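Translate structure to sequence.
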């Protein structure tokens, strides 16, 4: 009898652990290279309270953070196309999609000056993403896009041009769409801006300390928003 119990107890413990993990609220993160850098900290800070997953790859995105491949969600057009495929997967059923896109939308072609995704399309893409989630009852949490400082960005980046005025406009558009649809929003823009522009290590990315602080702020906000009774 004792020998049988020795086998049963580990199995029961594994079953209890699996049930506990399944009871945690779950999120799926899609974001640009900023999210790739704060992502590992965020996953660590959410451990044990929120089941974390994200758009991922084998490290491909980190080879060039300015090129939206793999784990890098890219612009709103790319996010929408990715989700149109992802949503069809039976296993894709997080409680929440935590989303940001905007930095790649406001890139300007160096030769023509044309913006990558126009204002009207950006607005429509965000609404289409929201509508796409509804049939699966996946809720959404929006993260506001972090800053672009013209004098820093366009001095340090010769291949990509962005402007702070576009960032402000696209954040405003997102605010309007998100508010209209009663979606919770985390203001990572304001939080990071208050840390100061000395936190930049290049044109748009942040140092390790800032990434950790961003993740801590996001983790606290997410835990509050997804907490189950």
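Result:
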């Amino acid at each position: 009898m004792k020998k049988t119990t020795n086998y049963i107890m580990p199995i029961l413990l594994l079953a209890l652990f699996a049930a506990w993990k399944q009871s945690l609220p779950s999120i799926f993160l899609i974001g640009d290279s900023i999210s790739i850098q704060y992502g590992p900290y965020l996953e660590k800070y959410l451990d044990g309270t929120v089941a974390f997953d994200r758009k991922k790859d084998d490290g491909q995105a980190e080879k060039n953070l300015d090129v939206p491949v793999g784990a890098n969600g890219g612009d709103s057009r790319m996010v929408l196309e990715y989700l149109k495929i992802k949503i069809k997967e039976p296993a894709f059923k997080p409680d929440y999609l935590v989303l940001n896109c905007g930095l790649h939308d406001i890139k300007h072609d160096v030769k023509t000056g044309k913006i990558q995704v126009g204002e009207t399309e950006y607005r429509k893409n965000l609404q289409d993403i929201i509508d796409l989630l509804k049939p699966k009852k996946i809720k959404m949490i929006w993260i506001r896009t972090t800053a672009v400082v013209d004098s820093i960005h366009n001095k340090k980046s010769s291949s990509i041009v962005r402007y702070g005025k576009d960032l402000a406009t696209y954040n405003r558009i997102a605010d309007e769409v998100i508010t209209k649809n009663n979606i919770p929003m985390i203001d990572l823009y304001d939080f990071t801006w208050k840390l100061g522009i000395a936190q930049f290590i290049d044109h748009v990315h942040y140092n390790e300390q800032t990434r950790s602080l961003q993740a801590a702020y996001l983790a606290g906000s997410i835990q509050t928003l997804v907490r189950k009774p």
